């Protein structure tokens, strides 16, 4: 599924609101496809810290984006 232009703009806007560290882990995980171990080694942080940052970053993104009608 390809997001509409408006949805892509909303996502870009929400990403810019994240801290640099959150953007770094999101980028490496979802765009580069790296494992948490690879991200941890690259950023010089603990693997558990990466997992926590990914969780917190995704929660922040969800809070910053309007619902798009997806039922869970």
From TrEMBL:
Keywords: DNA-binding, Sigma factor, Transcription, Transcription regulation. SUPFAM superfamilies: Sigma3 and sigma4 domains of RNA polymerase sigma factors. InterPro entries: RNA_pol_sigma70_r4_t2, RNA_pol_sigma_r3/r4-like, WH-like_DNA-bd_sf. It comes from the Bacteria. One of its GO terms (molecular function) is sigma factor activity. Residues 10-58 form the RNA polymerase sigma factor 70 region 4 type domain. GO terms for biological process: DNA-templated transcription initiation. Gene3D superfamilies: Winged helix-like DNA-binding domain superfamily/Winged helix DNA-binding domain. Belongs to the sigma-70 factor family. ECF subfamily. This is RNA polymerase sigma factor 70 region 4 type 2 domain-containing protein. The lineage of its organism: Bacteria, Bacillati, Actinomycetota, Actinomycetes, Mycobacteriales.
